[in-house]
Amino acid sequence: MTTIFEPHCLVCKKPIAFGELICDNCKENLYSPSLSNGAFKVYHYGKYEYPLSNLIKEFKYHSHPKIARLLGNMLAKFFIDLKFPELNYTVSYVPSNFSSVHEKGFVPAHLIAQYFSDILGFPLINLFSSKTLKRQVQLDYKKRNENVKNKIKLIQDPPKNIIIIDDVYTTGASMNEVGNLLIKKCDVLIGITVAKAYRYSFNKSL
């Protein structure tokens, strides 16, 4: 017998165990790894399409905090599966536009990075400030690059081994901008995102 308190999968709405957010079948459908080569290598957990895109939108635009934990857990497992060298990593994240932070009340990449770093035991720091005038989601490829060009600044010296977290990689403009700031200052620089949007060409092979 179903009760009004029975939890349901956020994606397919099927009943699930208490404490879970999505069912096992939907979890399997989220994973589709790829790699983009820009200023540095950025690894993507999945594709920005259903059902992963729905989870990200629910998190970013409807302030569903438990999804940040789910996404952070997914990226932590992804990082382990990629078998990077065992180093003293520090975690940071791509900053959000001021209007985006004002509207949402939080930086999505920061929350995901927080859970990611907690699980792996890596310190989390804020490396960047953003002076972008418009939200990236509102812009096309050319304008996305123009919007972030020289608008993201380092606010402290970066550590030698750094992991940069973001939620969605579309054109790579923001990741490339932070990469250009770090590439000559770090020994190891790794980018990891939850999803890669497929409107633009990219390197699918890992």
From TrEMBL:
UniProt signal peptide: none
Gene Ontology molecular function, alphabetical: glycosyltransferase activity
Record key words, sorted: Glycosyltransferase, Transferase
Similarity-based family: Belongs to the ComF/GntX family.
Protein name, UniProt field: Phosphoribosyltransferase
UniProt organism field: Petrotoga mobilis (strain DSM 10674 / SJ95)
